[in-house]
Design a protein that fits this description.
Layout: H1 2-24, E1 40-43, H2 49-61, E2 70-75, H3 88-97, E3 100-106, H4 110-118, H5 134-139, H6 142-149, E4 174-178, E5 187-190, E6 193-197, E7 206-209, E8 213-219, E9 222-225, E10 235-240, E11 244-247, E12 250-253, E13 266-271, E14 274-278
Helix pairs in contact: 2-3
Length: 281
């Protein structure tokens, strides 16, 4: 009997040792980290999904793939309606049918946010605990914005003519250099930086920068500059033939380019809420 008890105690002891050892050597399965992301905001002006969704579908059919499976925030700050009059579940289902993924809300009254949360759209909050507004959601990186605002001023440029006193301010941003062609379905994002592409951006490809976008080749895909709501950002291309261009959230699809210099060197800037196109040089 003593021998049997001794054997059992040894087995239990060995089992505890093996369990303790295995718990120490289990592989790490996940990590939680905070992160900042640039998100588009769909600011509702009408509470009816059957009014919003068809208009939204018409817009995005002009730029196929632009928002396919993209996360989007629902802006409630401009919505004048009672919470019970907003069909959040119908809106979510309709957005999913358009292959757009709503992930939360911003703005709105506490009652409106509560109704959205009940439908599966939680309010998004900034790191300080305050409600995210549309501009903050588009920027989604306050550190980068503050760094850009505090960028040192460049030394005054040499005067082109006597008496001229022009001064120029550098962007203070780094640049991401891409030397390979951007393929269809490929998306490249220069966070907190300008983006320089020395090859072609093919149809279906997408180049995004918080600063300027430079394409020293053919721009045949989509180009998005000023992704952190920088309205001073510009788009430059040696061969301008894009599917879509956007600056600081304002965009134009191919059909709306009008008198833009298609097929030629061009630069694009934002003037208020209007796109302006001009030649290079």
């Amino acid at each position: 009997m003593h021998a049997q008890w001794h054997a059992l105690l040894c087995a239990l002891s060995n089992g505890r040792s093996e369990t303790a050892l295995s718990s120490q050597t289990l592989p790490e399965t996940f990590r939680l980290r905070a992160g900042n992301f640039n998100l588009l905001v769909l600011r509702l002006l009408d509470p009816r999904p059957d009014a919003v969704l068809p208009a939204l579908g018409d817009q995005f059919r002009k730029a196929p793939g632009f928002l396919r499976f993209a996360p989007i925030v629902i802006g409630l700050q401009d919505l004048v309606a009672a919470p019970e009059d907003v069909d959040f579940r119908g809106l979510i289902e309709g957005l999913h049918a358009l292959e757009i993924v709503p992930i939360g809300t911003t703005g709105g009254t506490p009652q409106m946010r509560q109704a959205a949360t009940a439908a599966g759209l939680p309010p998004l909050r900034a790191a300080g605990g305050k409600e995210v507004d549309a501009e903050a959601a588009m920027a989604a990186a306050p550190q980068g914005a503050s760094q850009a605002a505090s960028a040192p001023q460049a030394a005054p440029a040499a005067a082109a003519k006597p008496g001229a006193a022009a001064q120029f301010r550098g962007s203070g941003r780094n640049a991401l250099l891409v030397t390979e062609p951007v393929r269809s379905g490929q998306r490249i994002y220069a966070e907190g930086a300008d983006l320089i592409v020395t090859a072609t951006v093919n149809p279906g490809g997408e180049v995004i920068a918080d600063g300027n976008v430079h394409v020293y080749g053919a721009l045949r895909g989509r180009a998005i500059a000023g992704a952190q709501n920088d309205s001073e950002a510009r788009i430059f291309a040696l061969h301008f033939d894009p599917e879509l261009i956007a600056i600081a959230g304002y965009y134009v699809v191919r059909e709306g380019l009008g008198d833009a210099p298609i097929g030629r060197p061009a630069q694009v800037r934002l003037d208020g809420e209007e796109m302006r196109f001009g030649p290079l040089g």
